[in-house]
Structure formats: structure tokens, C-alpha cells
Amino acid sequence: xxxxxxxxxxxxxxxxxxxxxxxxxxxxxxxxxxxxxxxxxxxxxxxxxxxxxxxxxxxxxxxxxxxxxxxxxxxxxxxxxxxxxxxxxxxxxxxxxxxxxxxxxxxxxxxxxxxx
Length: 116
Ligand code: AMP
Prior knowledge:
Blueprint: H1 5-11, E1 18-21, E2 25-29, E3 37-43, H2 58-75, E4 84-87, E5 102-107
Antiparallel strand pairs: 1-2, 2-3, 3-5, 4-5
């Protein structure tokens, strides 16, 4: 989609530290990491956010989860290792700043609960 930052990263028009790419997803390191490991997994197809997902998006949403697991395992924070947090931000109270569906993969330190 025109004027979408994450569509531009998917297209290769904006540089990013990409750690994974497949037909449905691209994963890259967050530019302002909130944990030692902070990777964003985005859909290659433009979807606004987790609050707009419809049943027809199911394959893309499953692909986000599968890629998140692969990234966590590759980063050494998989379920058999330290563990990690997955987060979708939706709307202003969650500080959702980029309107393109993305899953945060956070880990590498104790993250605590509930989040601040
Ligand atoms: P959200 O608040 O869920 O919309 O998260 C958007 C995330 O995108 C934030 O954590 C930002 O730090 C991150 N971000 C913004 N621009 C870039 C960029 N060019 N490359 C990598 N991450 C970015």
C-alpha cells in the first residue's frame, strides 16, 4: 500500500535488518528495541492491524505465528530456552504507531507481568 512504512520495508524500498522472509511474512529487528531481542514480524500483504483481521486473513495470521516461533528459536529464546513474549498493539492506548499488521517478538530478559 502506498505510504505504508512496513509495505516499503517488505518491498525493499526502506532498509531494515531483515532476519526472515517468506511468501507471507517478513521479520526484521525493531529500530527502537524494548528488549535485547525485539523483532517485528509483518505480513507481506497489507492488513491494518489485529483489530481489523477477518476470517479471510487466517493464512496470513497463522504465518505470523509460525514465523515468530522460527525467529524465537533462531535467536535462542525459544520455548525450550528462555521464552519470549508476542504482542499485537491495537489502537492508541496500546501505542499502535504503524498501521500494518505486525507481531512483536520480545525476549532476552525477564519481561515481567503485567506489562507497564
Ligand atoms: P506498534 O507500536 O505496535 O505500532 O509498533 C511499531 C514498531 O515499529 C515500534 O516498536 C517502532 O520502534 C518500530 N519501527 C518504526 N519504524 C521502524 C523501522 N523503520 N524499522 C524497524 N522498526 C521500526
